[in-house]
Records
---
Amino acid sequence: MELVETGIIGLDNILNGGIPKGRTILVSGPAGAGKSTFGLQFLYHGIVAGGESGIFISFDEHPAHVREECLSFGWNLRDLEKENLLVLIDGFS
């Protein structure tokens, strides 16, 4: 089975290399557990290191806030959007 790295070294080690490619994965947890951050990390890593493109739908925060928060991790989503590698959809407003 082909695996896709998450971009989180420790998690990839636990998962024996990553998550199965082409599969739907449910990420579950309470508010503040880091589900959105994990999703964004996975997307960012896939785009920057894996040559992929992605879509993120934000239901809990305004996209401007998501972009701002990502900058604190060094992830410039705006640049990826300008290159048509990422689409950030507002499901919050």
---
Amino acid sequence: MLINFADKVVVGLAAKPIMEELNLTHEQFGFLGSSFFFLFAVAGVAGGFLANRVQTRHLLFAMAIAWSLVQFPMLATVTFETLVICRVLLGAGEGPAGPIALHALYKWFPDSLPCVPTAIVSPGSALGVTVAV
């Protein structure tokens, strides 16, 4: 969850250099910043359904591969369009992380301790933002 939340804020932290290098308007940068969330929620719901049908380790492995592959185009010369496409795909790849992580943890703990898995996963969001800043 740490990396997931760090990825969400990193573009905002690099706003000035990105806008200057790519000559982006504020509207374009707003579109870029929000593009991460275009498929994030849809993928989160889909990941929740998949978590009941596919082993969690396979889903997490596929998500890690997707996160990695989506970053490769950024090694080359980056355009606004490339950034938007990569951010949309990254959001789709990271959307299921929360539901899948909780699904996996709920399997490890007895039903008498329903709050423990959430208490384990939740700090990752705060730590991710803190590390990114």
